[in-house]
Specification:
The complex is a heterodimer of chains A (207) and B (481). Helix content of chain A is 36%, strand content 14%. With 207 residues, chain A is of the alpha/beta class. In chain A, strand 3, helix 3 and strand 4 form a beta-alpha-beta unit. Chain A is globular, with a radius of gyration of 21 Å. Chain B is an alpha/beta fold and 481 residues long. Helices cover 33% and strands 16% of the residues of chain B. Chain B is built from 17 helices and 19 strands. Classes of the chains: A alpha/beta (207), B alpha/beta (481). At the A-B interface, helix 4, helix 7 and helix 8 of A face helix 3, helix 4, strand 5, helix 6 and helix 11 of B.
Amino acid sequence: MRINSVAVPMLQSDIDTDAILPARFLLLMSKHGLGQHLFHELRANALEVDPFVLDKPAYAGAQIILAAKRFGIGSSREQAVWALHDFGIRCIIAESFGEIFYANCINNGIVPITLFGEAHARIVEAANAGIPIRVDLERSTIILPDEQAIDVVLDDSHRAKLLSGQDDIDDILSQHKTAIANFEQRQMQHSPWMYLDDERLAVFDNR
Amino acid sequence: MESPQTLYDKIWQSHVVHDYAADSVVSRSAPSADAPVLLYIDRHLVQEVSSPVAFEGLFERAIPLRRPDAHIAVADHAVSTMRSRPNPKNSQAAQQVARLVENTAATGMPYIPERDARQGIVHIIGPELGFTLPGCTLVCGDSHTSTHGAFGALAFGIGSSQCETVFATQCLQQTKQKNMRVSLCGTLQAGVYVKDVILALIAQIGTAGGRGYAIEFAGPAVDAMSMEARMTLCNMTIEAGSRIGLVAPDETTFAYLKGRPLAPSVRQWNDACDAWRRLKSDEHARFDHELQLDVSALEPQVSWGTNPAQTSAISACVPDPKDAPAEAAESIRDSLAYIGLQPGAAIAGTRIDRVFIGSCTNSRIEDLRAAAAVAAGRKVADKVHAMVVPGSQQVAAQAQGEGLDKIFLDAGFEWRAAGCSMCVAMNSDRLKPGERCASTTNRNFAGRQGRGGLTHLMSPAMAAAAAVTGSITDVRELVGL
């Protein structure tokens, strides 16, 4: 997977998922079409003469966001990641991420890259200048405009997931069905209270 | 002999279905230090916002819900808190709830209807029903799932895609966190509550202080806490960057759970308690990071900024960016510009427009009692709109039985029906732009409670004090503590 794009600088820390996708858009029940609501308040409040950075011509078509610390903290809403993906974002580089947001990125084909210090500063330069960078996921590197390479650190399992787009459910059911059943059998023996029978569940009218 | 284990280690280890690190040994490739495991998920709470796409995926695959009995669904995020004015039938909110009703019926998943006596916020009703149990793994498509850690459950928030994985397999691939222990000692002063403890902790360690860790809360101050207080403590762990908060179960826990509808039966009770008593960190268990906090000196806390770590004692002044290190200065400047406070100004005395007492953080019976004790015999200040939203219909019923609703109504508060309400502002309970709110919620991010809304986080007692004085007030001074 290779991404060749300008990186949009969003260098405020603590950009939370309420900012990325305000709660009222969570009433929508599809994962598609959310890109139009991305960063809704920030984009709506911006002046025509000074649009929000995502709407600036220099960053049109950008696939990479460059953030500071704690990008995506707050609510677990996966809709925030769907909105980013729908908008065209395929990679987010930040000094740190909200944990649930990070996991949601891995599950939706957005590469979350943690970088800080000197490496982060080099990308800030390129982002501010509007010069494209290249992200090579197979090689785990970012190539700067001057062809210098920065190493990217990602868990093996996360990289594998992003590269193959493998489906968790298919994997689990094809490889671990027996192990799951065995676990449940053992648990029923030593912790039977974890299994509720129909009599206990009769408290729920709909069953 | 095995090395000493933490509570987190024990619950984690007992739920491993498959260790992916073992695969790399077999395939002789380089083992990853952070190889995930396949973790069995005992319990899944389901709400209307994060589940539609998850159910859709399940139906598309034509896979059944693996364990209906491990799931409970309820609508809480966008339900109307005014029973006399439900969401219009064709509104997005009503449609989302209708979709949950359809989805649960189609899969045989237990569902608590909107008008049911047991309906409420998902993190309130789980414990009420005895669905949340010590030593279980529990997930929900909501970040405040950490709340359930108060029972010694390994509980964390997940995204919609992961909800689908749990529907289909009852498992999740998870990477283990490091262990952190926060030891709390001392005794809370009068007028100071556990909400103040967790706010002060987040202010101290920051919104990423817990990132990469599961946090266990321990120590005499925790031992002394009620279950509701422990839930408030664990609820806001996510705001410190950790998805997982844990309190070892003890006799307080067992007493809370005994006899609840889905808790172990009379026949199973002793065996369950025997198992649960083993759920504690070993004496010499190693934590990757430890922190101590003496709660005796704590004052009531109030957030002054736009993230939960931007919080100070009530007697403090709004920070001045000029006095802060360069990196923090810009963040403080931006926050103050949004929240409309002056650097160096006293936090106390800030006028407020709205008061919201509710949310999964602080809407249980003890929270309402604390707020009612302040409201009793006093009146909501002029031009202030204050409302109380009980966390569940059971909390509401109990509060009504104790006459708390009458206290609030006499004081001029609105008394509403249960739901997430103005914490997430997905229903009609929202701040208007520029409205300043004293709130018992968990997040003060810009626009969280409504576009342009200004949020100040605090305890229920402090929120009630703000309601009756019209400004952010030290509740201890107001009631003479």
